[in-house]
Design brief:
The chain has about 180 residues and is mainly alpha-helical. It has four helices and two strands, in the order H-H-H-E-E-H. Strand 1 and strand 2 (about 120) form a beta hairpin. Bound molecules: protoporphyrin IX containing FE (2 copies). It is found in: Cell membrane.
Length: about 180
């Protein structure tokens, strides 16, 4: 057993790397959308799509990692908190996959291929349908994005609660 604040059982090195690179990719993807909002420049929407697709590829690898590596046992805490945290982690995985998938579908149904940093292109693999593009645009912007904000907020709020109120070094497990 670990003893309180002194030592903790960590997530595997791969899980820790997957976690923080995902955070970085999500941040960059969002910032690019923010900059696009101000500039309306094609460069930023193009980069938004390429980084967004990078989130998808990264998350697919992360799911494989999650299946094959063991999660550390939960810190001592009420059962409901363990269930809520596991449920939140599961939902965050699902959102980080669904978000780029709807972005991709919005693009290809709009008849636009996705340029991956000039390295390769994801072609239009469906018959473009305007109404489908609009549907996925709505899901992307009005449903999934607010959900990402809510669940990420919950997640970071919980991390801060552990850090500053419970002082149980939970963050040390993912550092
Ligand atoms: C985790 C990945 C992604 C995140 C977090 C994300 C986030 C966002 C956000 C916050 C918006 C603005 C929504 C609003 O109008 O309020 C947006 C719009 C958009 N996203 Fe993404 N996105 C991701 C992936 C993608 C991908 C992979 C593509 C396409 C391949 C894409 C294409 C677009 C497009 C075309 C828009 C609409 C721009 C416009 O309104 O003109 N996104 N995204
Ligand atoms: C400053 C930002 C963040 C902090 C401080 C943070 C902190 C943590 C901590 C402490 C854990 C381990 C929890 C435990 O051991 O029970 C964790 C796990 C996790 N975090 Fe974060 N996190 C941050 C951002 C994010 C973001 C933005 C996402 C996704 C949108 C995310 C998704 C996850 C997931 C899915 C896990 C479960 C580990 C796994 O299965 O890979 N985190 N985070």
């Amino acid at each position: 057993m670990n003893n309180g604040n002194v030592s903790v059982q960590k997530w595997s090195a791969s899980s820790r790397i997957f976690h923080w690179i995902s955070v970085l990719l999500l941040l960059v993807t969002w910032l690019l959308m923010l900059v696009y909002g101000y500039t309306d420049s094609k460069i930023y929407i193009g980069l938004h799509k390429a980084f967004g697709m990078s989130v998808l590829f990264w998350m697919l690898a992360r799911v494989i990692n999650r299946v094959f590596t063991k999660a550390p046992p939960a810190l001592p805490m009420p059962k409901f908190q363990i269930i809520v945290s596991q449920l939140t982690h599961f939902i965050l995985y699902a959102l980080l996959i669904a978000m780029p998938v709807t972005g991709l579908l919005m693009s290809v149904y709009g008849g636009r291929p996705v340029d991956m940093f000039g390295l390769f292109e994801i072609p239009v693999f469906v018959t473009p349908v305007r109404s489908m593009a609009r549907f996925y645009n709505d899901v992307h912007a009005d449903i999934l994005w607010p959900m990402i904000i809510v669940f990420t907020g919950l997640h970071i709020g919980a991390a801060l609660y552990h850090q500053f109120i419970k002082k149980d070094n939970l963050i040390g497990r993912i550092k």
